[in-house]
Write a structure and sequence with these properties.
The structure is a single chain. The protein is about 45% helix and about 10% strand. By secondary structure, it is an alpha/beta fold. The strands form four sheets. The chain has an eight-stranded mixed sheet, sandwiched between helices. A five-stranded parallel sheet has the order 2-1-3-4-5, with helices on both faces. Strand 3, helix 15 and strand 4 form a beta-alpha-beta unit.
């Protein structure tokens, strides 16, 4: 034990000595080399070290009279979310070194700090003050992007008027007037909108703002209504950014090709895929009475974290698998049916709508698909029908002959007694061979076409029709195995499957597709790409288009308060979009119970209707 203590002490001493030596080596370097080392730390994202290094330079080298180090120290503090410290450091640069080359950078950083604190009005002022000092056009374009974001978030009207009164720069005056016009639109004031738009000298309006000016100018010709504001909270960077970007693209696409952009305003917030960021954003938003709702694809952890918040703000969630949470979190609105809901609708469709009773089940016996099948079985039980056979498999289903023989044995047991018994139920089938492009004749010796009567020797060739439907959800990589083996057992039945069957290139192969004509899929999205694992980008894009249209059906009724939006949301009669449908129900009227009913036929998926558990609305072609 003493030996171990001595060893640890030696190692610890070596670390301390090495640190002291390294520190001494840095201290012995000239100023410019120290500065370069600190800048390198900053560029590498090591902001704690960078702040310490710049602080040491200021205290040991320059007696706190170095605007460059002071500004870089402030930038490091900003990236560490030390906004108060960064703010003081920037103001010190401005007060101590007026008209220095670093003034514009300090003003921009003050604007960034203000945005980080959720104050777009203060940020707007700082960016405008910095703008006339910037000559680099690329940098200026980045500043204009920040100013554009401030306008979108909302700049206080009384501040705008004061800025315009004092502003001498023609470009800044054009930007300020554009902000005034935007506020007039938000207030639904068409008189002020027209008045201000006519004051804007487009010669001085920077190009970055031309699209906003054009949109507002077009509104002058029409009578405008006050738009409602929806906060869009999603990951545009970090974890889940593909999902966030696709959803935002769908929102933008729909707004660009419709007139609803005049009545809905989206404020976009980037969560960077962080639960902490999401909580902070939502807490900040909740106190803004101008925002009527929050919309956005949130992760499972994000949804769980906000479910406990006591908010009076409705949060619209495009897609989630947290079944049962809608009963607890009253102001969370789930716009897509959960997997549990899909499983229930599948059972209801089979039993209540199609009156099927002889149902077989073939399913994985573990993981999420097992949970899905359990929900299906429970709903069957509640509806008074228990499947006649349930077969499970655990591993990759390369050979499920045992399960399929059991299903066929049950099917044969349902044949009336006056028909021959199947004495060939134990026929051995090599399931691995079935994975290639084969025909059932490779396994069964089919009888001649003209046979008056079948005898026991030919029983393996009998096509059994005694099972009315088979429910067979699969995992994402199992279509090759399940799709090729099922047809070998000559079961003429209806197939009900899950979205993992919708691998269209594989499903359409000759060895699979022809055996599953009329197969049905109950889904949340009306599309052959509804399998989110295969194409989440297209999936979320499609959902966003429909969700924007759904929100518009609420807005167009005319609402002026957040509580009106929530009331109309809960009492909405239902929406049928291009790719999805929404009918909120459940204990709090906040869970979508409407599912798409799809059918596979002739190598394509088509929507045949919408089912909400009570009514099957069929498509009329």
């Amino acid at each position: 034990m003493d030996h171990m203590r001595r060893l640890i002490h030696i190692i610890f001493s070596i670390v301390i000595i090495n640190t002291i030596i390294l520190s001494a080596q840095i201290d012995s370097l000239p100023y410019y080399e120290k500065f370069d080392i600190a800048v390198k730390s900053f560029k590498e994202g090591r902001y704690n070290i960078a702040e310490l290094q710049f602080t040491n330079i200021l205290s040991n080298e320059r007696e706190y009279r170095d605007p460059a180090s002071q500004l870089m120290m402030a930038k490091s503090q900003y990236h560490l979310d030390l906004f108060d410290k960064a703010n003081r450091s920037c103001k010190s640069v401005l007060s101590s070194y007026p008209s220095s080359p670093y003034e514009s950078d300090a003003l921009v950083l003050l604007g960034d700090i203000a945005l980080g604190e959720g104050n777009p009005t203060k940020a707007f002022k700082h960016y405008l003050n910095a703008r006339p000092q910037i000559e680099d056009l690329l940098y200026l374009n980045k500043i204009d992007e920040r100013i554009f974001n401030c306008i979108g978030m909302g700049v206080k009207e009384e501040v705008i008027e004061g800025l315009l009164f004092r502003e001498k720069d023609s470009f800044n005056r054009a930007i300020i007037n554009l902000s005034r016009a935007y506020e007039a639109w938000i207030n639904g004031d068409d008189y002020d909108l027209e008045l201000v738009i006519n004051e804007i000298d487009t010669f001085y309006l920077p190009g970055y703002f031309s699209s906003l000016f054009g949109a507002l100018n077009d509104l002058v010709k029409d009578e405008i209504k006050r738009p409602i504001t929806i906060a869009v909270v999603l990951p545009l960077s970090g974890k889940g950014k593909d999902k966030g970007l696709s959803y935002l693209l769908g929102l933008t696409e729909f707004l660009d090709r419709s007139s609803i952009s005049t009545s809905i305003r989206f404020l976009v917030y980037d969560t960077a895929g962080s639960v902490v960021n999401t909580l902070k954003i939502i807490n900040d938003i909740s106190s803004n009475n101008e925002i009527f709702a929050i919309l956005g694809p949130l992760s499972r952890d994000e949804v769980l974290s906000i479910s406990g918040l006591k908010l009076q703000l409705p949060i619209l969630i495009p897609k989630s698998e947290l079944s049962g949470l809608s009963n607890i979190a009253r102001n969370l609105f789930f716009l897509s049916p959960s997997s549990e809901m899909i499983a229930k609708r599948t059972a209801q469709m089979m039993i209540k709508e199609l009156n099927l009773e002889r149902i077989a089940v073939l399913s994985p016996g573990n993981g999420q698909i097992k949970v899905l099948t359990d929900h299906f079985l429970e709903e069957c039980h509640q509806l008074g029908i228990d499947p006649i056979v349930v077969e499970w498999y655990i591993e990759k289903p390369e050979n499920i002959s045992r399960q399929l023989k059991n299903i066929r044995r049950v099917a044969w047991s349902l044949v009336p007694e006056d028909e021959p018994e199947d004495i060939y139920l134990n026929l051995e089938i090599d399931s691995l061979d079935a994975l290639f492009d084969v025909d059932v004749t490779d396994f069964f010796e089919l009888p001649p076409e003209e046979v008056d009567k079948m005898d026991k020797k030919d029983s393996s060739k009998v096509i059994l029709e005694t099972i009315e439907a088979i429910y067979t959800p699969i995992r994402s990589d199992e279509l090759t195995y399940i799709g090729t083996q099922l047809p070998l057992y000559n079961l003429k039945t209806s197939f009900f499957v899950n979205e993992n069957w919708l691998d269209m290139p594989l499903l359409n192969q000759e060895v699979i597709g022809p055996h599953y004509q009329g197969m049905r899929i109950i889904s949340d999205v009306n599309s052959a790409i509804s399998n989110g694992n295969q194409d989440s980008f297209t999936n979320y894009y499609s959902l966003a288009v429909d969700h924007t249209s759904f929100i518009f059906t609420i807005v167009e009724q005319g609402i002026s308060k957040r509580k009106h939006f929530i009331e109309r949301l809960r009492n909405h009669r239902g929406f049928d979009g291009t790719r999805s449908s929404i009918k909120l129900g459940g204990k709090n009227n906040n869970e979508n119970g409407s599912a798409q009913v799809l059918e596979y036929s002739n190598n394509r998926i088509r929507k045949i209707g919408v089912y909400d558990g009570e009514e099957f609305s069929q498509n009329i072609e």
